[in-house]
Design goal:
By secondary structure, the chain is an alpha/beta fold. The protein has 11 helices and 15 strands. A hairpin with a 6-residue loop joins β10 and β11. The longest helix is centred in the middle third of the chain and has 12 residues.
Length: 265
């Protein structure tokens, strides 16, 4: 399988997962073929995702089950970015966490003590907030109280929604917006579109010209521009053709799916 002329001009390809490579556990049409073609052409790949439910190891296993080859070194998640930043802030000794078990593990691995459900919850040093399907009002209440007492707010991104087989679900950005409004604070972001997560991927890939491919203008395309690399949009997730056409600055390419972009239709 030969690559499209666009892809031949890049050494590295950064791929968003949800809405681009797959929706739920199902790959987008011919995505495994497209990724195999990139590898066969000598392109280095990184999967860059704001997904919070899984560790890099979980995602590797899930991708293989979907017919997509991947290694832990190729996975760059918002959880790894959270862990790096918390570990780099010694003043964050205690944390109130909203998120799935994978995010709790990353915060603990960074050396912070999680204080949810304890007497210290209201005076945590930092609130770490990401999307989770098990979100409860009690968690939002506890995080708000900690923020009003002076905790910092760290969020895994501003994605309003994320695509699922039964339609969009509220994303990390929706949780962050709730807390910002409730406590009159501004969150520090570590996921897309923050350029840090892209630079982590680029550091792993090494020198060369890189292209980011995703389905979101506000995280994938804006983040690529912030990191100084090209961005392309696929329409298999949340962005419509009209929205992609109106983007400023525009993507270098728009295609229906990842396979259409990589293989030329």
């Amino acid at each position: 399988m030969s690559l499209s002329p666009l892809l031949r001009g890049y050494d590295h390809v950064l791929l968003d997962l949800d809405g681009c490579v797959r929706i739920g556990r199902e790959p987008t049409p011919r995505a495994p073929e497209a990724i195999d073609a990139l590898r066969a052409a000598g392109k280095r790949i990184a999967f860059v995702t704001n997904a919070t439910e899984h560790t890099p190891e979980d995602l590797v296993r899930s991708l293989w089950r979907s017919g997509i080859r991947a290694s832990v070194e190729e996975i760059v998640t918002v959880g790894t970015a959270v862990q790096f930043l918390v570990a780099d802030r010694p003043q964050w000794r205690t944390a109130y966490v909203i998120g799935p078990p994978a995010i709790w593990r990353h915060v603990q691995d960074a050396g912070a003590r999680i204080v949810n459900g304890t007497e210290e919850a209201a005076v945590a040093d930092v609130v770490v907030a990401t999307g989770t399907k098990d979100l409860a009002f009690e968690e939002l209440k506890g995080a708000t109280q900690a923020l009003l007492e002076g905790a910092d707010l760290l969020s895994g991104g501003r994605d309003r929604t994320f695509p699922t087989p039964d339609g969009p679900w509220p994303g990390t950005g929706a949780v962050a917006a709730f807390l910002e409004y409730a406590a009159e604070v501004t969150a520090e972001m570590v996921g897309k579109p923050d350029p840090g997560i892209f630079r982590t991927a680029l550091d792993r890939l090494g020198p060369g010209r890189a292209l980011m491919v995703g389905d979101r203008l506000d995280s994938d395309l804006d983040g690529a521009h912030a990191a100084g690399i090209d961005g392309a949009i696929v329409l298999s997730g949340v962005t419509t053709a009209a929205q992609a056409a109106a983007a400023d600055p525009p993507p270098v390419a728009v295609a229906a799916t990842l396979a259409d972009l990589v293989l030329g239709g």
